[in-house]
Amino acid sequence: MMNLSNLSVGLSTYLLVGAMLFCLGLYGVLAKRNIIALLMSIELMLNAVNINFVAFNRFLWNQKIDVHYLLTGHVAAIFVIVVAAAEVAVGLALIITIYRNRRSTNVDELNWLKW
Amino acid sequence: MVEFNFATVLTPEIAIAVLSLILLAIGLLIPAGARKGMMPLTVFSLLGVLGYTLYDFFYGQEAAFLGGMYMHDQFAVYFKVLFLAAALLVVLSSGGYVQKLPKHRGEFYALLLAATLGMMLMAGAGELITIYVGLELMTISFYILVAYLADDARSSEAGIKYLVLGATSSAILLYGISLIYGLTGSTQLVEVAGRLGGELTPASLLATVFLLAGLGFKISLVPFHLWGPDIYEGAPTPVTAFLAIASKAAAFAVLIRVYLLTMNSQAFSATGQTLLLVLAAITMIVGNLIAIPQTNLKRLLAYSSIAQAGYLMVGIIAESTAGIKGVLFYAMIYVFANMGAFAVATLIDEKQGSSEIKDLAGLWRRSPLATVVMTASLLSLAGIPPLAGFVGKFYLFSAAMDQGYVAIAYIGFVMSMISVYYYLSVVKVMFLAEGEGLPDVPVHGAIKFTMVFTMLITIAIGLYPTPLAQMAIAAAQSLF
């Protein structure tokens, strides 16, 4: 039987997941037509960043040797989560305003301003 | 460098934060009729903080705390003066406009000050996460301010567009920051600079490009400029003014600090400079050319501000004290020149409910003062000799020439010649077009003061630029 405790996941795996999430989010921002879906895609991008930060922080320091390792990455991830929450709160409020004005949350209909 | 001392470093920031919270509380607690005092309260408090910051600029000590996480050098204080002056002028010119808002008048000033606080944090930050938090404080306040006219569908459309694009750009910026953190193990700019090393790897190139794209969005450099005109047109006019003047200057403060501190190694310098050169050139060309066919005043000013960002980039590319001095000097006079134009736009918007260029027809007969102020501002933006804009462009382009960047200075020169055309076509409408049926536009109160003050400053600095130039030199030297 395989010994599961020997299986380890390296930094590159985490970074790959982060990059994939980021690209998915970016694709969503560019391709989706509903504003709520756009906000969700932006959340994906921000969470990709969080994965990066936390993974880097974990692998930059060998926690058995470096006693006084810094938690910059973890702290950064928490800051990102807080800011993203504020951003989404404003975003949802704006979506409600837009829905009241036009009875729709489709980006294609936001065409009153153009050059 | 002195270690962190609470009183010397953070006084203006704390004052602005407290004032913002007080205004928010007043807006909630005091009945609507008694809120007339909010604007004077904001104005006088801002004046006080501005006075303190100016004193700080000349006599304050250089300090840093938490190992360079937050800097208090003349460069940062110079930008704080700029943001506070811009906020003060915007508040002064927005009095009548805010009085006409149907609801939520009180929160307007509180949000404006929150945005100012974010900008001040950006100017002082010496660490990437601090920069990000300051940037988001500014931007999220702006999302709300842009969409402030909740019943006006154009305003909320501008707000959601700004939110989606702004959040995407800050996600890209953050991805760049996370890569830099992974490459160097630190987010402190000084440590990042030390550890990035000379070699340019794919990861570090990606990080640089992402960082530049995120900041370029806020500055509205050309491939990232498409949000600008839409948001400028839809937002309430005083907010547009603040967005055009101060948020751009804040992003420039960050860009200058990050660029000068972290791109010092040879490989980075070459790549970063090539990127910036290309961006500056296309920004100047596209901004000026698309400004020509515009029919809306706010859109015209949006494209003009895109072009101005291109001129400012020329100074950063020069990468010398003279170049940074040019950027600082130009950013400051840009506040006054643009504020004059936006004060007139606010006034027209307030009285006529629109901001098309044709609404300015015959303004010369309807409001001579507004016409003169607008003309002076536009000519200064175009860089016509006796006004401040000329001196600023001279500093920028001559600094680039001194460092051997002749081509980019030449593009800037030709493009500012072209810009004279669209600025003068607005002036032509004001003086020559018939404005029959359009109402008289009387100017009085705080907005009159703003107009006259900005015009006088624009002329005075154009005639005698030395004091401001010396301030800019001192601020630029604190970086090198």
Protein architecture, described:
The complex is a heterodimer of chains A (115) and B (480). By secondary structure, chain A is an all-alpha fold. In chain A, 68% of the residues lie in helices and 0% in strands. Chain A has a single domain, classed as Helix Hairpins. Chain A is elongated. Chain B is mainly alpha-helical. Chain B has a domain at 265-480. Chain B has a three-stranded mixed sheet. Classes of the chains: A mainly alpha (115), B mainly alpha (480). Chain A binds chain B through residues 15, 18, 22, 25-26, 29, 35, 38-39, 42, 45-46, 48-49, 52-53, 56, 60, 72-73, 75-76, 79-80, 83, 86-87, 90-91, 94-95, 97-98, 101-102, 110, 112-115, and chain B through 129, 132-133, 136, 140, 143-144, 147, 150-151, 153-154, 156-161, 163-164, 167-168, 171-172, 174-175, 177-179, 181-182, 185-187, 229-230, 233-234, 290, 294, 299.
CATH class of chain A: Mainly Alpha
What's the SSE pattern of chain A? HHH
- Give me the count of strands of chain A: 0
> Percent helix among the residues of chain B?
over 70%
Described by its quaternary structure, the protein is heterodimer
Q: Work out the strand percent of chain A.
A: under 5%
- Based on helices, strands and strand pairing, what is the structural class of chain A? mainly alpha
| Tally of DSSP helical segments of chain A | 3
Overall mean pLDDT of chain A stands at 84
Rg of chain B, Cα atoms, Å: 21 Å
The amount of helix of chain A comes to: 55-70%
Q: Tally the helices of chain B.
A: 19
